[in-house]
Design a protein that fits this description.
Layout: H1 11-23, H2 38-48, H3 63-67, E1 69-73, E2 78-82
Antiparallel strand pairs: 1-2
Length: 98
């Protein structure tokens, strides 16, 4: 069995749970229908904790936008991924891509 918990909660409880997860350095996944305030909630948490929030909508990305371009590596005779070289279009200049 995996260590994943699924909970339904309102915005106030979700804000507390996410803030606690950040404090504990635990990843979270926030899911819900469009227009219920998920982005606003994350923005509020970023403001409250003095953290930068980078809004990435994965549904709008292609796999190569995230992982890079696949190519055949003749040295190892395998397919591999050429990492993205420049993702400054999404991250500030002071941060690395991955």
């Amino acid at each position: 069995m995996s260590d994943i918990s699924i909970r339904q909660m309102g915005p106030k409880a979700a804000k507390r749970a996410i803030a606690f997860a950040i404090k504990m350095k635990r990843p979270t996944f926030l899911w819900g229908p469009p227009g219920i305030g998920k982005s606003d909630l994350v923005s509020q948490i970023g403001t409250d904790t003095n953290r930068e929030v980078i809004d990435v909508r994965l549904a709008l990305w292609e796999p190569t936008d995230i992982k890079g371009i696949p190519y055949f590596d003749s040295n190892t005779s395998t397919m591999t991924w050429h990492p993205r070289q420049n993702c400054q279009w999404i991250l500030p200049a002071r941060r690395s891509c991955f």
